[in-house]
Design goal:
With 66 residues, the chain is α+β, with helices and mostly antiparallel strands. It is built from one helix and four strands; from the N terminus they run E-E-H-E-E. It is globular.
Length: 66
């Protein structure tokens, strides 16, 4: 895998992909995550997820669990 695509960010609404992006820097991806929560978080059924593709794990998601 190309390290420039390690951190994958998605926005879904009503089960459909609205936006996606890949970054090589976790700092940049986390900043984008916060920005996207502000921009897209008010969409009905919005879910925003940041995944570390190399580790195969979700780093954070909005809205949070629980």
């Amino acid at each position: 895998m190309d390290d420039s695509q390690r951190f994958y960010l998605t926005v879904t609404a009503a089960g459909r992909l609205v936006m996606q992006g890949w970054w090589g820097s976790e700092t940049t991806a986390s900043r984008k995550f916060s920005s996207w929560v502000g921009e897209y978080g008010s969409m009905p059924g919005a879910r925003i997820t940041l995944t570390d593709e190399q580790q195969g794990s979700v780093l954070t998601s909005w809205p949070g669990e629980g």
